[in-house]
Design goal:
The protein is built from 6 helices and 7 strands; from the N terminus they run E-H-E-H-E-H-E-E-E-E-H-H-H. It has 217 residues and is α/β, with parallel strands linked by helices. The chain has one domain: Maf protein, CATH 3.90.950. A 7-stranded mixed beta sheet has the order 2-1-3-4-5-6-7. Strand 6 and strand 7 form a beta hairpin.
Length: 217
Amino acid sequence: MSSQPLRLALASENAGKLAEFREALAGLPMTLQSAGELGVTDFPEETGASYEENALLKAAHVTLKAGLIALADDSGLEVDALQGQPGVHTARFGGPGLTNGERMAHLLQRLRKVDDALRTARFVAVIVVATPGGAVHTFRGESEGRILQGPRGVGGFGYDPVFFSPELGKSFAEATLEEKRGVSHRGRALAAFSAWARSAAGAEQLRLLTPRPVDEE
């Protein structure tokens, strides 16, 4: 068996996301490269009906292009008073071309007549691991909360200023990065993946799924 670390590809060119995934895999005999570092700069349109489908579209594309095990994620905000919207359409909620602030304002407008007790919501993240041979593993994380009447805090991104986390007692935008990571949907999905990868069964599966040993030149 090769002693070389496993090479994995991340189906994203987002530097912050790459750093977050690398941190979750720290200490494991693996190296993670972004799709761009591997020469994959095109991604399929996210037309899936679920987070799992969207993440699989990206992971399957990159694993076939790069010839490596690939990781991808998809996430969204689900608001109970809106019957789970925006969900998989979170990044496009309100229409094309809107800024994060405009999408947040659109959400608040939709909820303007909804009482606090009924503004329950959750962030959901799904990580998919796909291999060139067609194997797929899925990891899910959720963070429960409610939508505030108005934005609070200046940190985070997207809908963080209006998402109140009971676990933290503050909005995601008021939390430090470390605080948010401990309870966030992506943090929990990453923890589930990391725990699997660190387990004997998961580590063995990853090695068996590796298409071929990669030797340093």
